[in-house]
Amino acid sequence: MVDGALGARGAGVSADRIAFLGHATVLIELAGVRVLTDPLLRSRVLHLRRQVPPIPNSQFAHVDIVLISHLHHDHLDLPSLRLLGLGSALVVPRGAGAWLRRRGFTKVTELSVGDGVNIAGAQIVAVPAHHDGRRLAGPSADPLGYLVGDQRVVYFAGDTERFAGMSKLAPALEVALLPVAGWGPTLGPGHMGPLDAARALAALQPRIAIPVHWGSLLPLGLARRHRSRLGDPPRRFAEHAARLAPAVEVRILAPGDTTTL
């Protein structure tokens, strides 16, 4: 189900909806509150190049909350955060706050696993993620996933491998945003491919699953050989999910697409 682009707040009919903007960048709109995850809003980061059209500025206008799952450059991108403004409300893993404040960001909330905060009327709870938390030439902080919302709860997994206790994250998830690939042709530890993501889905049992962290980035020099396979991970995830979690509705959004809940 694809509904087109999200407009700025106040444009059109208010609805709960989700836009996949590419990689781990997702715009979640619940009860009029706009939450942006791991914003990567430019065409390149380090050796990685965006393989899909750029994100229009209108799609990340008027963001109320920015969630950072961990400190890797493709998830915490300083130039993208500056595009959103130094006064943006950032929610980050504990240990990253002072580093961001020294770079000019003025509204930084640090969370550890189990911590919660209400910002702009939206409830945010930090949950575990199993991934490397170190930043190249920067700080280290334990990675997080997040539960967003109250009546409708959206789980943003960040980067993680499957871990014990996933089934206990929330009793009734509306949506799970699950990573199903990486930024290159292979996956290292701390990630889920399509099959592992489907196994995680079977534990989580949300109403809707949206695969993320796919189809957007490739290392410099690999695009010619691998671009044609960028869409494979979500399709394989949907096939595994149909077998392992048949009660869950899988919605595949191409980067830039939006779905209404």
Care to describe what's here?
The chain is α/β, with parallel strands linked by helices. Helix 3 (194-204) crosses helix 5 (232-244). The protein is globular and about 45 Å long. It has five helices and 17 strands.
Number of helices: 5
Low-confidence stretches: 4-13
Largest sheet: 7 strands, mixed
From the helix content, strand content and strand pairing, which structural class follows? alpha/beta
Q: Largest sheet, order of strands side by side? A: 8-7-6-3-2-1-17
Q: Give the N-terminus to C-terminus distance in angstroms.
A: 10 Å
What's the arrangement of secondary structure elements?
Blueprint: E1 17-22, E2 25-30, E3 33-37, E4 44-45, E5 48-50, E6 65-67, H1 78-84, E7 89-93, H2 97-101, E8 107-111, E9 116-119, E10 122-128, E11 144-148, E12 154-156, E13 175-179, H3 194-204, E14 208-212, E15 217-219, H4 223-226, H5 232-244, E16 249-250, E17 258-260
Parallel strand pairs: 3-6, 6-7, 7-8, 12-13, 13-14, 14-16
Antiparallel strand pairs: 1-2, 1-17, 2-3, 4-5, 5-15, 9-10, 10-11, 11-12
Helix pairs in contact: 3-5
